[in-house]
Structures are given as C-alpha cells and as structure tokens.
Amino acid sequence: MDSMHDLGGMHGFGRIVPEPHEPVFHAPWEGRRFALTSAVPFAVPYCDDQFRPAIERMEPSHYLKSSYYEKWYEAVVRLLQERRVISAAELDGSAPPAQSHALAVRADAVLPAIFAGASQARPEAKVARRFSPGDRVRTRATMGAGHNRLPRYARGKVGVVDSVHAPFLVADRNSIDDQTPETLYTVRFEASTLWGTQAPPGDTLSLDLWDSYLEHST
User: Fold this and answer.
1) What would the pLDDT profile of 155-166 be if each residue is shown by its tens digit?
2) 194: number of Cβ within 10 Å
3) Helical H runs in the chain?
4) pTM of the model
C-alpha cells in the first residue's frame, strides 16, 4: 500500500503500548463483527485481497480514528455496496431492505469452511523462477498506485533469498480479479539495512515477496 494506512516505519505515532490483560473482544459487537466478516464472503464472493484494499481506501483521518473492528465494518459495507447487495439508503434506514441477490449460506457450513481454508498457492502454474536461495536481491523502490504487499520501509533494500515457494496469486492483481500467479520468495533482510544503526545488531526480518517485487543485486 502507498498511503496513510502503511504505518510501518513511520515516525510520530509514539510507542506501541500493549494493553494489559487485553480481552479477545472489547465489546459484544466486535465478536459479532468478527463472525459476520468471516461469513459474508461465503454469501457475497470476495477475497481477502479485496477486503484489505477496501480498508486502505478509507479517508486517512477516519482511518486513524477508527478501531480495528470499525475498519472491518467500513470495508465490508464498502464491498457490499460496490456489489449492489446493500444501498446507503438501506444502511441509514431511509429505505426498506431490498431483495438480496446474495447466495444463501447455511450457518453450520461457515465454520468448517473457515477451518478448511482457501490456499492461494498455484503449484501447477508454469511461471518464471528468476532467483534461488542465497541470491542477493533488491526490492523495487516504487510500487505505483493501488494495493501491494511491499511496505515502504523495505523499498529499494537489499536482502538475501532464503527459500523459494510455489507460485501464488499476486495480491496486487488478485485485488482487481487478475489471477495471474508468480513465484513467491522468502527474503531475509538485516535489520540495520531497513532501519539503520538504531536497529539491534544481529536482528533480521524475513518477508514473503513475489517475483515482480524483486530485481538482481550485486
């Protein structure tokens, strides 16, 4: 992502202070939101790579003021409106609920489907594999508009390929219904490469990155 929502490595937001004895949910509505967000894609098809960009499209000040599950609510509402399942008038109560064109889904079928998962690996795909374990690579310095999974603090940085994985759907493309897969690599970076001398000596960070995110480095 390339917006206020990519907070990794940004300054000015203070330290993260964990909440002592933090509950799973702070209020009953958060638990309901978790359940509904998990269930809705079985009735109105969309994927996680479309859910995340829906959050990223929140107005920045609204995003920063919203809680975790408020962001989930905003994303689901946006996706349902874009798919014409609900309208703004239905949400504010000025119009009665319309007949839904969503697929029916049985409540007892949701939990097994969640535990079964939906892998985005495409091991049968024939795609380029430009790098091997031990290769030094440099990440792209710019990513352009739209959703992506390369955080700003890791742009234009040199790392080493630790492992090579099967082809996976690329989140950027999948968010716009392009299911062209690419080889996925685990790339290890020295923390000092990402954050300079303030990083603890010897620390490393590994990121899973697609082929198009990388180039060879000497």
Assistant:
1) 999 999 999 999
2) 20
3) 28-43, 48-56, 60-65, 68-82, 88-92, 107-116, 171-174, 191-195
4) 0.83
